[in-house]
Structure to design on (138 residues):
């Protein structure tokens, strides 16, 4: 019995577990999902329809665009923030971009380790600091 149960959708349909045959395993919350409750994309990303996981998917797209913009500004030795002309002062631990002393700051951030929230100090740019709440939700 247990073997069968590990291959069924774990998402909620109204008040009970969906239980349909699983089509994928969400890369963000590790829940199995059926065709109705998630998508397996062409690039092999597997994401369920839970709001938190969809937020993460959207945020990641935004983040990659941001990283690209920062990188191209850094190549010209400019702070990663558009229209900032101060000299470079530090590096963000999350996006690896370089920023001026105003746009990257030491912060106490929370992160997930085995689904447990932990704290640490890290230098973060404003963008990475702002997106952090999305990634500590489970
Ligand atoms: Zn999920
Ligand atoms: Zn389902
Ligand atoms: Zn950053
Ligand atoms: Zn700056």
């Amino acid at each position: 019995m247990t073997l069968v149960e590990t291959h069924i959708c774990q998402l909620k349909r109204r008040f009970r577990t969906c239980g349909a045959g699983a089509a994928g395993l969400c890369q963000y919350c590790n829940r199995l999902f059926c065709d109705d409750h998630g998508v397996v994309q062409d690039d092999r990303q597997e994401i369920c329809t839970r709001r938190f996981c969809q937020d993460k998917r959207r945020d990641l797209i935004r983040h990659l665009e941001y990283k690209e913009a920062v990188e191209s500004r850094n190549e010209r030795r400019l702070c990663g923030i558009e229209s900032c002309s101060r000299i470079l002062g530090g590096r963000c631990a999350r996006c690896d971009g370089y920023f001026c002393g105003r746009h990257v700051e030491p912060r106490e951030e929370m992160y997930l380790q085995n689904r447990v929230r932990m704290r640490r100090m890290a230098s973060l740019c404003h963008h990475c600091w702002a997106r952090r709440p999305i990634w500590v939700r489970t």
